[in-house]
Amino acid sequence: MRTLTTGKIRWILLPLLGLIVGVAGVYWFMLRDNAAAPLALHTDSALSRTAAGTDVNGQWSVVPGTTSQPTTAGYRVDERVLAVGADTATGRTHDVTGSVTVAGRRVTSAQFTVDMATLTSNKSLRDSVLTTTAIQTNRFPTASFTLTEPIALPDIVPGKVYTVEAHGRLHLHGVSNSVSVTLHFEQTTTDFVLLADMPIVMSDYSIKAPDVAGVVSVENHGSFELLANLAR
Where are the beta strands (DSSP E) in the chain? Predict the structure, then answer.
């Protein structure tokens, strides 16, 4: 029976290692590009010089928003490629529905639903992976947040950004967890705009972070972003 010498093993492993690194490099350059900028409020300082805002009591519904600040939801997570580098992957969708009810200067109820199946990045390969693995949008096409505790609102001046804590339940990948979310919001001349950036630990929602043969992997933690325009 012939045995392989150390030298022969080395000559077998080196090309294999080179192939793995080469595949990683191809994958890296196929996916790598600038991540989408974090969602942010576009404040209008001129509005803050006006008097108090209008009565905010009533029901507010999610609307598409403007071209410069459309209603958007998405994810942000770091990808790592063996021996090549790291990148931030982002995906976006404008398919968001929901409503907020305000009574007596308190948010008494709120619910938002995101169509996860319409999440897209600028790389179709990444989107295909998310359909069948990770968040598995083919099996779990929506994610939702439902407020579980009322939120007290301050005296609101249009154009000024306010910050409140929202306690609710996030339903993602078929799993519901209690969460606390920091919300930033402002009143404009016609509506409200709110922003949330929620850290997500994938394992908390039974999401298995993608790992392609140990060559390409995704961190177990990321963030879920939401910018929603609300109108009566």
Answer: 58-63, 72-81, 85-93, 96-103, 106-115, 142-147, 151-152, 162-172, 175-187, 192-201, 211-212, 216-231
pLDDT per residue as tens, the chain (232 positions): 555 555 544 444 445 444 444 444 445 444 455 688 899 998 766 665 554 556 889 999 999 998 989 999 999 988 777 656 677 889 999 999 999 999 998 999 999 999 999 999 888 878 888 888 888 999 999 999 999 999 999 988 888 999 999 999 999 999 999 999 999 999 987 789 999 999 999 999 999 877 665 656 778 889 999 999 999 8
Residue 118 within a domain: yes
Residue 67 in tokens: 């071209």
**Which residue range forms the structural domain that includes residue 59?**
6-231
**Total structural domains in the chain?**
1
49 burial type by CB count under 10 A (0-12 exposed, 13-18 middle, 19+ buried): exposed
Note whether residue 1 is domain-resident. Answer: no
- CATH number assigned to the domain comprising residue 180: 2.40.128.110
Is residue 210 included in any domain, yes or no? yes
Question: Is position 122 within any domain?
Answer: yes
pTM of the entire predicted model: 0.81
Query: Among candidates 111, 93, 92, 91, which has minimal Cα distance to 101?
Result: 111
Pairing label, strands 211-212, 58-63: unpaired
